[in-house]
Every structure is written in C-alpha cells, then in structure tokens.
UniProtKB/TrEMBL annotation:
Pfam families: Ank, Ank_2, SOCS_box
Species, as recorded: Rousettus aegyptiacus
Gene Ontology biological process terms in this record: intracellular signal transduction; protein ubiquitination
Keywords assigned: ANK repeat, Repeat
Pathways per UniProt: Protein modification; protein ubiquitination
InterPro entries linked: Ankyrin_rpt, Ankyrin_rpt-contain_sf, ASB3_SOCS, SOCS_box, SOCS_box-like_dom_sf
Protein's name according to its UniProt entry: Ankyrin repeat and SOCS box containing 3
SMART domains hit by this protein: ANK, SOCS_box
Residue ranges of domain SOCS box in the record: 377-419
Length: 439
C-alpha cells in the first residue's frame, strides 16, 4: 500500500468534501450521519484533508462534530497529525485553529518529527511563530539522529528563521547524535550567511564533532574558501587536531582534496611541527595520497619536506615511498616530477628505486628525462675516477682494463651500458680481461 499517493477510490465522501473545501456538501454529509473517521490508503482522515488543503471552515465543522483530543491528535499511517500537515504547508490559520482546539505543538511523527521542524524545513515562518507562541520546544530534535530546527534552518540558510530561533532561545551549541552543531553544518555546506549569523551570536568556532573534526577542518575539506576565511578571522584554530590520533589538521584536508586557495590560507598559519615532527604526519603525505599536483607543489615550494617522518597510520617511510608503494600506477607523472625535484630518489629504499626505474620505462618522456638526470652513487664514482685520469688514458680501452678495479667496473667506466642503451654498434667491451667487440 502506498502511503504517499492519494487514491480517490479509497477516500470517503466526507474526506473528499474536506479536501475540496466544499462546506455545503460536508454539512449535508454530516447531517446524514456520515462518519468523519474513515481513513484512505494513507491513513488520512477528513481532518487531515482539511488541514493540508487549508479548508478552514471544513476543519471547524469537523472539530465541532468531534471535539475530543483523540480526534485532533489522530495520526496517519506515517504518524502525521493534522498540525504536522498544516505546519508543513504554512497554513497558519489552520495551525491556529488546531492549537486553540488542543493540538499538541510538540507532537512527533513516527520518525520523531515535530510540527516546528516541518515549519522550519518548509520555510513557513508565520506557522513557526504561532507554534513558538503556543509552547513548541525550540530545541526539540528531529529524527533519531538528533538534528533539530536550528540545524535545518542553518542548512537552508534561512536567515530570518535562524535569527527568530536564536531569539526564542535556540541552543546554538546543540549537537546531534554525531556531535554536529549548527555552526558545523554551515561550514560543511558552505552556508556563509548562516555561518556569519551563528558566529555573531557567539557560537564556538572551535567546536568539535564526535570524531574531533572542527568547522574549519570540514570547510577546508569541502573547499569553502570564504567560510575558511571567516572562521580564521573569527578565531578558529588551524592547529587544533581533528582526529583521535592527534595528527590531522585542516591543512591535511585541503591538501588531500586539492583546494589550493584554502591551502594558501592555511600554510602561513599552521604550525610547521606537523611537517617533520615526531608522532605527526606531514601534509605532503595528504597531497600525494590525493594525487593533488598543485597542492604538492605549493607545500614543497613553502619548504615542506618530501622526506618527512614515517607515516603514523600507513607506516610509509616517506611521502615518496607512499607514492610508489601504495598506488604507484595512480600517481601522475607531474606529481612525481615535482616530488623528485626536491629529493634525491636514489636515497630511497632499493625496492622503491626499482619501482621508479620500472615506472620510467612506460611513463612520459619528461619523467624519463628527469629520472635520468638524477645521478646515482655509482655514476658519481665513475665521474670521480675518470676525472683523475689523463685524457690520453681515457681514450684507451686497454688502459681502463688494466686499472686495479673490480672487473665489473671496467665496462662501467667505459659507459658500456649507456652506449648499449642507445644502440651504438661495435662497442668494445671487456670480457674476462680481454677486449672484444660487442655483438
């Protein structure tokens, strides 16, 4: 059975008259003794039809016919009473009639929704004023998660309703079941006007949800630059750790999600201890994890280290190790090049060095050239040895062969692997102490 769509063939004649607001027909039906409590497929009775469709005179006739509290509080199959329906539609005169007849302003549906919440949700400020005047609880929650009217007004950025609720005593620090305050809602959804009103009313800009996240953290994560600016100018702490392990900050959120404008605001304000400090995690990790090239470049250019501390959670020895050991195929070439520009990748563990070399074999020309341009220790030794020899000695393969060095270094000193890589024919190489032509 569908409880949302009205089927006319299930509605009583009294219900149809109330729905249409036909006072004459309704009066005749009532005189004939027709029942006023026959429900349709949604559990709607004539009183619900009259309230929802703003049929004020029909509503009064029905209440006069049965003025008991039970009839006024009759619920649909979803737990809505007439007051819920009238409040949701903003029929303030109907709301007034029902309240004066004894309707409960704090009645809840089966999902714990109040008439006041429905009025806020639908922007019905006149109905809201009436409900507040008749004792509606301004801090009552909606649904099982604890979200209330001020949360909803903030989300919808209805400034007039927010101000009214605050004036009537709404708790600006109220939390839902996840520790989320209205100010947190404003920051999360980028509701700048709502955020401004709440801050002006004294809301705590450094409040933390159950998971320790702050409004500044969530605004940075979502990329709401203006909200970040307002929070920072209002005293939000960029160094307030936003997780149980005390390492994640707003700067990490901005770096991972690629919000460069937000990152630009946070870099000069964030304590640099997070970069290389013990028991911390550098935001460089976050930029690499998110594959955020511009954010990575910004952090490195501002002096953040690509060889930061070991990651507390993933146990990578450096951001570079994370890039290759975690998701080597998903990190783009540009991100890798930026990181290589600030570190000597030959100092990384051998397994990572092999990964980089393998990656270069199928990557862009720019990455191949960049990796080729970074000298390894063996090449530096080769250059040092050659620099100590005379020019005529360098021209003699036999002289190189006679040097008191391991045989494996003879071909290396002659750049045999470089010539072979470039397809140079008839390369003279040293095998078992004798010079021969390469095949």
């Amino acid at each position: 059975m569908d409880f949302t769509e009205a089927y006319d063939d299930t509605c009583s004649t009294v219900g149809l008259a109330a729905r249409k607001g036909d006072v004459k027909i309704l009066r005749k039906l009532l005189k004939k003794g027709c029942s006023i409590d026959v429900a349709d497929n949604r559990g709607w009775m004539p009183i619900h039809e009259a309230a929802y469709h703003n049929s004020i005179e029909c509503l009064r006739m029905l209440i006069h016919k049965d003025s008991s509290e039970n009839y006024i509080k009759t619920r649909t199959f979803e737990g809505f009473c007439a007051l819920h329906l009238a409040a949701s539609q903003g029929h303030w005169k109907v709301v007034q009639v029902l309240l004066e007849a004894g309707a409960d302003p704090n009645a809840t549906t089966f999902e714990e929704t109040t008439p006041l919440f429905l009025a806020v949700e639908n922007g019905q400020i006149d109905a809201l004023r009436l409900l507040l005047r008749h004792g509606a609880n301004v801090n009552g929650s909606h649904s099982m998660c604890g979200w209330n009217a001020l949360h909803q007004a903030t989300f919808q950025e209805n400034a007039e309703i927010i101000k009214l609720l605050l004036k009537k005593g709404a708790n600006k620090e109220c939390q839902d079941d996840f520790g989320i305050t209205p100010l947190f809602v404003a920051a999360q959804y980028g509701k700048l006007e709502s955020l401004s009103i709440l801050i002006s009313s004294g809301a705590n800009v450094n409040c933390q949800a159950s998971d320790k996240a702050t409004p500044l953290f969530i605004a940075a994560q979502e990329g709401h630059t203006e909200c970040v600016e307002l929070l920072l100018s209002s005293g939000a702490d960029p160094d307030l750790y936003c997780n149980e392990d005390n390492w994640q900050l707003p700067i990490h959120a901005a770096a991972q999600m690629g919000h460069t404008k937000v990152l630009d605001l946070l870099i000069p304000l964030t304590n640099r201890v997070c970069d290389t400090g013990p028991d911390k995690v550098s935001p460089v990790y976050s930029a690499v994890l998110g594959g955020q090239e511009e954010c990575l470049e910004m952090l490195l250019q501002h002096g953040y280290s690509p060889e930061a501390q070991t990651h507390l959670v993933f146990e990578f020895s450096s951001p570079m190790c994370m890039a290759f050991q975690k998701e080597i195929n998903s990190v783009n070439d540009d991100t890798l090049i930026f990181t290589l520009e600030f570190t000597n990748w030959r100092r990384l563990p051998p397994t990572v060095e092999k990964m980089i070399s393998a990656r270069a074999s199928y990557s862009s020309w720019a990455l191949q050239q960049h990796i080729a341009a970074v000298p390894c220790l063996a090449h530096l030794c080769r250059l040092e040895i050659r620099s100590s020899l005379k020019p005529q000695h360098l021209q003699s393969d036999s002289f190189i062969c006679q040097l008191p060095l391991p045989r494996s270094l003879h071909n290396y000193l002659l750049y045999a692997e470089v010539l072979r890589m470039n397809g140079v024919p008839e390369l003279a190489v040293i095998q078992d102490g004798e010079i021969s032509e390469a095949t």
